[in-house]
Amino acid sequence: MDEGGLDPFLSVLPESLELSKLGRLTPRRLVVVRGEIIETARRRIGSSPAYRCLLFDGSGKLALYFLGRGEVAGLDVGTRCLAAGRVASFAGELVLWNPRYRIELGPPDPANTPQLP
């Protein structure tokens, strides 16, 4: 928390924004999501590198793309995180491009722990 009492991760987002389930996302919505990374890959988007993380929350999946990066420290399979950005559609999946993110440390909250099918 910063001195003003706001979480710096959320301080740049609209106050009315609530945590969204991945299974209910639609393109063009500004969202905050929580889940576990179940897959990572290095990709090329045009001539640039990109790091892709697939986030899962038990209700659906969402790809997080970090353009210009071959990897992002700490974002590995099994990592739990919050991510925020505008949902888009790319290559047949819903994505967040260069999202704001925060790695969640400590034991998982059973109410928010994804269960793989």
Average the pLDDT over all residues and give the rounded result. 86
Residues in helices, as a percent range: under 10%
Q: What is the H-and-E element order?
A: EEEEEEE
The count of DSSP E runs of length 2 or more, i.e. the number of strands, is 7
Structure classification = mainly beta
Count the DSSP helices: 0
Rg over C-alpha atoms, rounded to the nearest angstrom: 14 Å
- The rounded distance between the terminal residues' Cα atoms is 35 Å
- What coarse outline follows from CA principal-axis ratios? globular
Poorly predicted spans: 1-6
In which order are the strands of the major sheet placed? 2-3-4-6-5
Q: Main sheet?
A: 5 strands, mixed, barrel
Q: In percent, how much strand structure appears in the residues?
A: over 45%
Summary keywords:
117 residues; mainly beta; five-stranded mixed barrel; 0% helix; 47% strand; disordered N terminus
Q: Care to describe what's here?
A:
This protein has 117 residues and is mainly β. The chain has no helices and 7 strands.
Question: What's the short story on this structure?
Answer:
This protein is mainly β.
Layout of helices and strands, plus pairs?
Layout: E1 19-20, E2 30-45, E3 48-56, E4 61-67, E5 80-90, E6 93-97, E7 100-104
Parallel strand pairs: 1-2, 4-6
Antiparallel strand pairs: 2-3, 2-5, 3-4, 5-6, 5-7
